[in-house]
Amino acid sequence: MSILLRCVRALAPFAFVAPLIAPAAAQAQAGAYCTIRANPGEDTPQYARPDDPWIFRGTDIPIDDEWLMGELPNGVRYAVRQNGVPPCQASFRVAIDAGSLNEEDSERGFAHLLEHMTFRQSRDFGPGEAIPYFQRLGASLGADTNASTGPTQTVYKLDLPNADRAKLSDSVRLFAGMIQAPTLSKDNLTADLPIVLAEMRDGAGANRRIGEATQSTFFAGQRLSVRNPIGTLATLQGATEQSVRAFHDRWYRPENAVVVLVADADPQVLAAMIEREFKDWKVAGKPAEAPDFGDPVAPANALPGADGVPVGEATVIVEPGQARAVNYAIMRPWVEVTDNIEYNRGVLLNQLAAGIVNRRLENRARAGGHYLYAQVSQQKVARSVDGTYVALAPLDEDWEAALTDVRSVIADALAEPPSQAEIDRVVADFDIAFVNGVEQARIQAGSQLADTLVGAVEIREAVASPQTFLDVFRSMKDRFTPDQLLQATRGLFEGDVVRAIMLTPEQGEATADELRAALAAPVAASDVARDDGSSIDFADLPAIGEPAPPAQRAELGVFDTEALAFDNGVRAMLFSRDNEPGRVTVRVRFGAGWRGFNDDEAAYAQLGQVALINSGIGPLRQNDLDKLASGRKLGFQFRIDDGTFVFEGATRQEDLADQLYLFAAKLAMPSWDEAPLARAKASARLAYASYGADPSGVLNRDLDWLLRNRDPRFATADPAAIADVTPEQFRAVWERLLAQGPVEVDVFGDIDREATVAALSRTFGALAPRPALPDEVASRPVSFPAANAEPLVLTHGGDADQAAAVIAWPTGGGSAGLSQSRKLDLLGQIFSIRLLDNLRERMGAAYSPIVNSTWPKDVQTGGMIFALVQIEPAQVPGFFEEAQSIAADLAANGPTADELARVVEPMKQYISRAQTGHTFWLNQLEGATFDPQRLMALNTLWSDYAEATPEEIQALAERYLVGHGGFKVAVMPATAAPSAAPAGR
């Protein structure tokens, strides 16, 4: 393999001298000339209609001529488009206009079952051949090769990397054979039915019961109320090859199919491929008519609503361990619209109106309302209803007070128009989002374009370019008035019936009649949550300190990446690329991460991830930060990594200086608003009870702690520990952690380099010098539990047929082992293939077992390989047996060449695609100004995957999987709880 060497001049503050290498093969792959050109005569579609694209008929929305559309004589509609993002990838979709709402009562679950059987065997694929075939081409299962079944549509998906003409043409042919002629045999039904039942079991329990009750209440009297894609146990077990074939013949017809293909190819080539493979598809008989989905109708016993909408069906669900929630909806019939510009102006006004109401609801929650959160949204669901949905989470058992608080804010929005200042704020946020869409239009991924078109087909609307969205929005300036927004708000809350659902952990807290009465009762409008109209400008904020330019600047040798060192100890990396216009990512790595917490500070870590950012900076509190960000593209995410804390935000060059100021100010002058902490404590208290309700909740609560050998820092704080946290203690812990340890600022993306250096000089260069990490913190290890012959058994309080199992093996960490960690990734993926084949395909015991390999770069310990599965309790021993058998065989014999190829090729293709984006390089290079080993590790990024051998994988399996023996955890039901009703996904 050829290697591109770039020697760099090292400067003393960076403490390294190294030849740095970008993975040449990956660069060559991404820079390859992928475009498929049209061949005269061969690539001449007969049925393309550039002057009459079918999705734009009847609308005045400007035609997006990037799309080429056509209709075949048999009824198949297609849409193709040339797109090279990511390079060399083709995104292929086949959408069938039928889902669970098209099923007869005896066919419930058949649309989803048929999706599985379509991948099992077909005209050109033998049993189980499809997924491995596409893996060998570099398409990973789930991410690149997948399907989904919804109420009104079933979509088959393929994102094919490295798609030359031959591979693409063959893939279209093979997918056409899958859709048109799946092998719906008794043997294949016998193979797929256990997998679907395992998927049903995985989704069972409280969440399904809640979902089913919500669906049956909100869509009462409509087909959607009793149609879930997963189906029922009775109908699935009653499926026969004849009945499944009948469903396929009825709905899998050319008239119901839309084919979308987006690739770096002449659209004539793509259209010709589709026409060639789909034009001869014929199904006997006349197309079936879609059933009537029904309309929302108020029941005879509806209560007169205070807002003029009758209050109809209501349901109270009691689920021990679940957090309280109240959801209600104002329902209107779904009506197929003429998707024109005027219609979209109305949609935009509704969205602005909802945005203003949601700001007020958030203000009320922050100011001490009786609810944790509340939100309003308008949704059109499954061509069945057009609804306005209100969701809220009460802080305690006084749900009526929470509901009253929310309704009082909404009542105020219905009574009086918003202020112009409120309107201007939400308009500015919308405008920046639309501008950002235009800036990034040329780098929109082909998969997103394909999914957008398929989604538009489902809801019977057109598509529009980002520029059209911006133009339409800006053409509405004369409509952004208080009176027009008041009318839009009132329209959101008009309808035919109000329906409601309440979730509570305690029996007797409410009845359905009490919930209906509360919604029908008059409520006084409250203006306490209105925006005060004030504004805040960055220019008025205090300076971080005395600006200081970097003392040293040096090229790192990876493209034009530059390292900066400031006299105060801060270091920075700049990576500028113009292939992602308008996209900049800022990542600030500082301090000790998990190493920095004392044993008794787990609650502060947990609460800090929620409350730290919202507690403000300098003189600004949470609401002030919102005002400051208005009309700007700013982000402020926070996380705790093994060896460092991380601030991260997505921004653009115009707002980059402000983004850097926010991060630097959080280190230099943190504020300590108590309200976000109080809210975080309430959220943690409400969440804790739900952890024991099912296997996944128990694992969310305990697994990190157990896999770190019960290290108290990683324990989930219980309500007593949360209650003990005071604002003074919270401040003391986080002031310590924010103030210590090194700082690295990484700015990657479409930047003006010198302007960025100047902004860094005013912010991070102006920070006071920071103390180093104490030795006992810097060197603190994370340990792993010893292997156990019998699994540690935890219990959950949910359904008796629900269990989960985990087996994990320790590996390591640190940048010196990055090459090995990449091969461990491959080992984990091979393990996953075997586990999936055995547990899902062969035994039907589990739907989606997970195997993952982790390797922290900032610390020397803490990495692991773990396998996790949700499974029936009786099959838990079988999982451990199977996992240890796979581990032993991989250690003794290694993987086959084909197994290795099935994971290596998707990884190579992932690198080829991902490395065109700046975040890929950010993830590779972060920390490199303090740790030159990360730069050296780039030398082998490609070869570590591409040149891995079965012998290397075998040696790693022997060292790690057999050397330790594995730590096992099983989560079993505590009591024989009743099984959940089998419906929903």
Describe this structure in words.
The protein is of the alpha+beta class and 985 residues long. The protein folds into four domains: 54-278, Metalloenzyme, LuxS/M16 peptidase-like (Cytochrome Bc1 Complex, Chain A, domain 1), CATH 3.30.830; 311-520, Metalloenzyme, LuxS/M16 peptidase-like (Cytochrome Bc1 Complex, Chain A, domain 1), CATH 3.30.830.10; 538-778, Metalloenzyme, LuxS/M16 peptidase-like (Cytochrome Bc1 Complex, Chain A, domain 1); 792-973, Cytochrome Bc1 Complex, Chain A, domain 1 (2-Layer Sandwich), CATH 3.30.830. It has 32 helices and 25 strands. The strands form five sheets. It has a seven-stranded mixed beta sheet, with helices on both faces. A six-stranded mixed beta sheet has the order 3-4-8-5-7-6, with helices on both faces. A five-stranded mixed beta sheet has the order 9-13-10-12-11, with helices on both faces. Strand 6 and strand 7 form a beta hairpin. Helix 12 (420-439) packs antiparallel against helix 14 (466-474) and helix 26 (818-842) packs across helix 28. The longest helix has 26 residues, at 341-366. It starts with 5 loop residues before the first strand and ends in a 12-residue tail after the last strand. Mean pLDDT is 93; it is low at 1-32 and 976-985.
